[in-house]
Amino acid sequence: MVEAQTSKKIALDPTAATANSTTTLTIDCATFDYCTIDVQLGHVSNASNVPTVIQLAESDVTNASTFVNITGASHTSNVTALPTTGCTICTWDVSTIARKRFLQASVSPQAAEVLAIVANLSRAEQSPTTATAKNVAAWIVL
What we know:
The chain is mainly beta. It has a single domain (about 5-125), classed as Sandwich (Jelly Rolls). About 5% of the residues lie in helices and about 50% in strands. The protein contains 1 helix and 8 strands; from the N terminus they run ββββββββα. The chain has a 4-stranded antiparallel β-sheet, with no helix packed on it. It has a 4-stranded antiparallel β-sheet with strand order 2-7-4-5, with no helix packed on it. A hairpin with an 8-residue loop joins strand 4 and strand 5. It is globular and about 45 Å long. The two termini are about 15 Å apart. The relative contact order is 0.38.
């Protein structure tokens, strides 16, 4: 089996997040053993306007109040400046075997900022066999 073919993508549309708001992506990890999550932070006019929260949490259900931050899964102190051109990417690589079913990535920018969050679930119990099952518009295997 080719691991890349046992994957599924979940994405948050690039969002123009307002200052001090919280943008989240909730990921259902059922039937997948691994998840890579990328947070892309757009450039800002003031490099010190780093997000106040870049955190990963988990829960058994999708009720927002049940998510608990995962110890050691905060990028908040890792990002000390943002570029005034280009972007910054923060990544989590997560073995979901010992985790709760749902993961949630959260970002709270200090200033208005464009950001995107993409999760790549992999190592599926059963390989997704269609573009729809992989949650993509088109799929080509070469």
